[in-house]
Amino acid sequence: xxxxxxxxxxxxxxxxxxxxxxxxxxxxxxxxxxxxxxxxxxxxxxxxxxxxxxxxxxxxxxxxxxxxxxxxxxxxxxxxxxxxxxxxxxxxxxxxxxxxxxxxxxxxxxxxxxxxxxxxxxxxxxxxxxxxxxxxxxxxxxxxxxxxxxxxxxxxxxxxxxxxxxxxxxxxxxxxxxxxxxxxxxxxxxxxxxxxxxxxxxxxxxxxxxxxxxxxxxxxxxxxxxxxxxxxxxxxxxxxxxxxxxxxxxxxxxxxxxxxxxxxxxxxxxxxxxxxxxxxxxxxxxxxxxxxxxxxxxxxxxxxxxxxxxxxxxxxxxxxxxxxxxxxxxxxxxxxxxxxxxxxxxxxxxxxxxxxxxxxxxxxxxxxxxxxxxxxxxxxxxxxxxxxxxxxxxxxxxxxxxxxxxxxxxxxxxxxxxxxxxxxxxxxxxxxxxxxxxxxxxxxxxxxxxxxxxxxxxxxxxxxxxxxxxxxxxxxxxxxxxxxxxxxxxxxxxxxxxxxxxxxxxxxxxxxxxxxxxxxxxxxxxx
Length: 527
Description:
Shape: globular
Strand content: 5-15%
Number of helices: 18
Helix content: 40-55%
Largest sheet: 8 strands, parallel
Distance between the termini: 79 Å
């Protein structure tokens, strides 16, 4: 498969699934039959609607139809790690079923299958459908920075670079490399015919600040840059020696500021392909072209680009502004057209679910599918036009897709479209409607203030001016939230639903519920 794409776009287009937050249930991604995903009217007005549930296509076939050629699977704690790595597995990790894992074909000597004694059926189902759709899978396992999901556990805390911070791995310990190898081997054991394996290595904060690193840096000619490169080289060499036909990929941010001479002398360019990431709508095209040229001069044979279709505009963002992400992809197309055609391997469309392991959730995957659709089609066609917009609308089952606003009045038939409808209603109307009643209603402000509520003081006539409105609003929102919870439970595990509700629903809904309860108590006290 050539790297050059239709109308100038990259031909390899990997959709990044960030599973460290809100990992979708496997049937949402890969169930062959029996799925019913919902579409519903968008919230054109504060009228609260309850979506219907017409049949909808699966996510993976939809991604293929939209123009994806592969998946970048960042498993994190959703992978069913086994044996000594069992503590890394989250309660909601993809489940096991009886059976035995096997090594991947075409990947050199297979890993020790005893490390993964039972076959993770859900992972296999996703990978099987990906193959059936012609989607190439690239697994991603962090091996340096963003290691919180590993180093937060007491079993591995001694491998931290800085004792009190669980984000970065100590690059000096042999046990650190053994840990990374064990993680890679278990993931490799479930994947067949891999060509690439992403080993992360981005944002290695506090590197060089550990006690062993400080001692190492005191030695002549040692620098933080050389320390970083030595660990990347060690991990990449491990991958290449165990799996000769697999090429490691690394995020490029730790490499950008390193001199060409240091990079060239490190041996890293002969082992890995850098993935240059930038999620800005006003991405510096000229700067990126110069960076590509720098990497080529250093000896990297190929580079990847990384854009974003969600999860890059706010740590607690709940809705996706498509226009921002479309501009980001159009900028990347300019970089691609200005770079040597033979150096670009492909592009990954990242969809971050958390900024790191401990941060809150940003946009859920179903909410961002329209953004992903627009971005994929722009990359596939080398640009975006009214005709491409119409094709996106047809594939998503939407009558009118907005790119410059969050609001959409259109129905959708894509998987999880009912979640988008209900999340939009909650995001725009829940807090505003509750605040309107409780903070801008003269009867509440004047006759049922916190002072009145505490002492259960209420004028019987005034009560009738807002009690019916409060009860009605609470009833309507409880119905919407009940529908949203039911829709989310079809796609996500209970822990994800609870987290999203606690962050985005409960603060306003509980405030409304408390006022209704206080009204009831005051009325009873009067009687």
